[in-house]
Amino acid sequence: ALAPRAAGVLAGRHVLVTAGPTHEPIDPVRYIANRSSGKQGFAIAAALAELGARVTLVAGPVALATPAGVDRVDVETAAEMAAAVGAALPADAAVMVAAVADWRVEQAAAQKLKKDAAAPAPLALVANPDILAGLSTDPRRPRLLVGFAAETEQVVAHATAKRARKGADWIVANDVSGDVMGGDANAVQLVTAQGFETWERLPKAAVAARLAERIAAALAG
Ligand code: CTP
Ligand code: CA
């Protein structure tokens, strides 16, 4: 008889990952969005699945193939992402990599806005729900809650404040002052209750593999 396939260190665990931007409609053909390729989040979903986790990947609009063994839920807006995250619970861990739009247009136009008007009406914006902060106070909060923070300056200081404000266990702080956006490498610092570590600049797949190993170790402990 064949030997059973070795179970991965995350076998039996469910991990939720958000990735990509959200699109907030202005009218049927226009939207507000954050800059995000989704590459880092998709790489993390792939790395978690490789370690044997059941992975739910809630993805905003991106041009990426679904990683092997990952359950993907496509969404467009922050409100849809929040609903999909809630529907995916419970989870042992959640990794919120998505670049969620902080605001949406209060009332998207039903018809395409025409430029023949003298000047466009100012867009009235309202705040989107903070999905990560909401998860941290949810009765079904995952045991390990990991957020990301894209920063252009004072990276660790901003990420440390974000960790406290949002009730996350870890924040992966991302220095986006260089050419990270859409690229294949990432320079990150991992902020935890113990302080922070600086990882060397690595391919996004290597950042993902290292983070997945750390998540596995935390869930085992
Ligand atoms: N996040 C979220 N829902 C939002 C906004 C952010 O879940 N509406 C999550 C992101 O997925 C990320 C973390 O919160 O894991 C940090 O996002 P970021 O935009 O850096 O933080 P903000 O609190 O929105 O602060 P700011 O944009 O002002 O830097
Ligand atoms: Ca934000």
From TrEMBL:
Q: In which pathway does it act?
A: Cofactor biosynthesis; coenzyme A biosynthesis; CoA from (R)-pantothenate: step 2/5; Cofactor biosynthesis; coenzyme A biosynthesis; CoA from (R)-pantothenate: step 3/5
Where is the DNA/pantothenate metabolism flavoprotein C-terminal domain positioned along the sequence?
Answer: 10-217
Q: Which cofactor does it need?
A: Mg(2+); FMN
Positions with a binding annotation for CTP: D102, K112, P129, D130, I131, L132, F148, K162, K166
Q: Quick check: keyword Transcription in the entry?
A: no
The UniProt record lists the EC number as 4.1.1.36, 6.3.2.5
An annotated Gene Ontology molecular function: phosphopantothenate--cysteine ligase activity
Sorted alphabetically, which keywords does the UniProt record give?
Decarboxylase, Flavoprotein, FMN, Ligase, Lyase, Magnesium, Metal-binding, Multifunctional enzyme
Q: Which reaction does it catalyse?
A: N-[(R)-4-phosphopantothenoyl]-L-cysteine + H(+) = (R)-4'-phosphopantetheine + CO2; (R)-4'-phosphopantothenate + L-cysteine + CTP = N-[(R)-4-phosphopantothenoyl]-L-cysteine + CMP + diphosphate + H(+)
Q: Where is this region: Phosphopantothenate--cysteine ligase?
A: 15-221
Q: How is the cofactor bound?
A: Binds 1 FMN per subunit.
Name the protein family.
In the C-terminal section; belongs to the PPC synthetase family.
Function of this protein? Catalyzes two sequential steps in the biosynthesis of coenzyme A. In the first step cysteine is conjugated to 4'-phosphopantothenate to form 4-phosphopantothenoylcysteine. In the second step the latter compound is decarboxylated to form 4'-phosphopantotheine. Catalyzes two steps in the biosynthesis of coenzyme A. In the first step cysteine is conjugated to 4'-phosphopantothenate to form 4-phosphopantothenoylcysteine, in the latter compound is decarboxylated to form 4'-phosphopantotheine.
Under what name is this protein listed?
A: Coenzyme A biosynthesis bifunctional protein CoaBC
* Species: Sphingomonas citri
